[in-house]
Amino acid sequence: MFNMTSKLKKQNELLLVGKILRAHGIKGELKVLPLTNSPDEFATIKTIHINNKVYECENIRVANSHLIIKLDGFSTRNEAEKFADKEIYVDFDNRPAIKNDEYYIADLQGLEVTDGTKSYGFLENVIQTGSVDVYCVKGIHSLMFPALKSVIIDVDFNSSKILVSADELVKVAVYNDN
């Protein structure tokens, strides 16, 4: 299975990486739901964007499946509470590092899906089901298929293509002619 980081929204060269749930404790910390495969990916983040403003991170730590983020200059719960329900973005070029077999959804969107001979269209969306991601391709015939290693042979960003096995694709693809 190809792992995907959950970064779905690219906005003005910013990438959505988390959602602030609420203030945490009394020292101005934030409890954050990471929108990534692993909260550990946040270890390298130093600067975040919230509501089009830049904030320096004083400390980021993992707490179960959530993050606790302490922003520089905020020291009380009251100060932290104003960030509840806000989205956290990072500069697209400074996004957290990921493993070799993982891809950012924003990087995959728009790539041509081909078996080397036939073009099926362009990757429009990725549906994250929890167990395996589903690629949604828009072309002459729209189709969806699971992001399995047996189906995806290669992802080549230099040629902007996702190479798939035609034999495996026919077994798992769902076509929509609407």
Word description of this protein:
With 178 residues, this protein is mainly beta. It folds into two domains: 3-98, Beta Barrel (Elongation Factor Tu (Ef-tu), domain 3); 109-176, Roll (SH3 type barrels), CATH 2.30.30.240. The protein has helices at residues 77-81, 105-108, 166-172, and strands at 3-5, 10-11, 14-24, 29-34, 47-50, 53-63, 66-71, 87-91, 102-104, 112-114, 119-128, 133-138, 142-146, 152-156, 161-164, 174-176. Strands 2, 3, 4, 5, 6, 7 and 8 form a seven-stranded antiparallel sheet that branches. A hairpin with a 4-residue loop joins strand 3 (14-24) and strand 4 (29-34). The longest helix is centred in the last third of the chain and has 7 residues, at 166-172. It starts with a strand and ends with a strand. The model is unreliable at 1-11 (pLDDT under 50).
How do the SSEs run, as a string of H and E? EEEEEEEHEEHEEEEEEHE
> Portion of residues in helices?
under 10%
Assigned CATH superfamily of the largest domain? RimM
DSSP strand content: over 45%
Shape: elongated
**CATH C-level of the largest domain:** Mainly Beta
For the biggest sheet, the summary is: 7 strands, antiparallel
- Total strand segments: 16
Number of domains: 2
Structural class: mainly beta
Gap from first CA to last CA:
28 Å
CATH architecture of the largest domain: Beta Barrel
Q: pLDDT average, as an integer? A: 88
- CATH fold-level name of the largest domain: Elongation Factor Tu (Ef-tu), domain 3
Rounded to an integer, what's the Rg over CA atoms? 19 Å
How many helices does DSSP assign?
3
Q: Which consecutive residue ranges, at least 5 long each, have pLDDT under 50?
A: 1-11
